[in-house]
Specification:
Strand order of the largest sheet: 2-3-1-4
Order of helices and strands: EHEEHEH
Radius of gyration: 14 Å
Distance between the termini: 19 Å
CATH class: Alpha Beta
Largest sheet: 4 strands, antiparallel
Number of domains: 1
Oligomer: single chain
């Protein structure tokens, strides 16, 4: 496995755009798709919560994960930000080649 898809959420479209721009401009992600209209249900500090959030779908290389995570956690506004990685087992050869050319691991 060479590629991964990361999931995260933030509270606003503005913050989603900021994080997406940061990750793409630093070549830590090939693409970040932003999906608005997400409603999350969870418990926080013993209280049941419900929040409107924006979902980020981050496409990157496995080898870039640690650098991406450091930058992401530094700029993410939540105390405990979600950052979940799932493997990309298959994809179109042209898309994966493009991802490979866009993500630069430092």
């Amino acid at each position: 496995m060479k590629y991964t898809l990361l999931f995260s959420t933030v509270s606003s479209f503005k913050k989603a755009r900021e994080l997406a721009g940061l990750l793409v401009s630093r070549k830590l992600a090939a693409c970040v798709s932003i999906v608005s209209g997400v409603e999350s249900h969870y418990c926080w500090k013993g209280k049941r919560e419900r929040s409107k959030e924006v979902l980020l779908l981050i496409k990157t290389k496995v080898s870039a994960y640690k650098s991406l995570e450091r930058a992401f956690l530094k700029y993410h506004p939540y105390d405990v930000p979600e950052l979940i990685a799932v493997p990309i087992n298959r994809g179109s050869k042209t898309y994966l080649a493009w991802m490979n050319s866009e993500v630069k691991v430092s």
